[in-house]
Amino acid sequence: MNRRQIALKLVLAELGIRATMESFDDRLILQKAVYLAQQAGIPLGYHYYWYLRGPYSRELTADAFATLTEAPAGWSLDQRSKRKLAKLKTFFREFKSGSSKVRAFEMFASVLFAVVTGQAQATNAAGITKLMRTAGKNFTEKEVNAAVQRLRDQGLLPTV
């Protein structure tokens, strides 16, 4: 394993995310969790672009498949990263299980991606909702507004 793959395994373990690629939902959650972790300040170096279900990284998919059976023996994360990931893990616990959990990961990552990439402004929930609908997402303006507020609460978006 290379250093980024080792870091990926450690981050996923710290977040309590199963490093499995068995189902589409597993892969979606992994993609969105790592995107949110990077935005929280964990420098993994994955480059994301918009895909059908929100931010997506081909490099991450390749690394996740490459590391399925390996364990990063003798490596650990620094305390600063562990603190950031602990906060994010608490946030992820708020997501319900099943399809609601998948939808939550997709919504938070997609809304954040739209704002971070300058496609929308965090202060314009209606604009974000319109952009999401254009991209085939059925998030309501109320959901988007709540997502923006929760992303602010997590320090992922600046407060107004």
Summarize the structure.
The protein is mainly alpha-helical and 160 residues long. 59% of the residues lie in helices and 4% in strands. The chain has one domain.
How would you sum up this structure, described in words?
The protein is mainly α. The chain has one domain (3-153). Helices cover 59% and strands 4% of the residues. The chain has seven helices and two strands; from the N terminus they run H-H-E-E-H-H-H-H-H. It has helices at 3-15, 24-39, 58-66, 79-93, 99-116, 125-134, 141-153; strands at residues 49-51, 54-56. A two-stranded antiparallel ribbon has the order 1-2. Helix 6 (125-134) packs across helix 7. The N and C termini lie far apart (42 Å). The relative contact order is 0.15. The model has no long low-confidence stretch (mean pLDDT 93).
Give the spatial strand order of the biggest sheet. 1-2
User: Terminal Cα separation, in Å?
Assistant: 42 Å
Overall pLDDT: 93
Low-confidence stretches: none
- Work out the helicity level: 55-70%
Q: What is the general shape?
A: globular
Beta fraction: under 5%
Oligomer: single chain
Indicate the radius of gyration in whole angstroms. Answer: 15 Å
Number of strands: 2
Largest sheet: 2 strands, antiparallel
Number of domains: 1
Number of helical elements: 7
Going by helix content, strand content and strand pairing, the class is mainly alpha
Order of SSEs, N→C? HHEEHHHHH
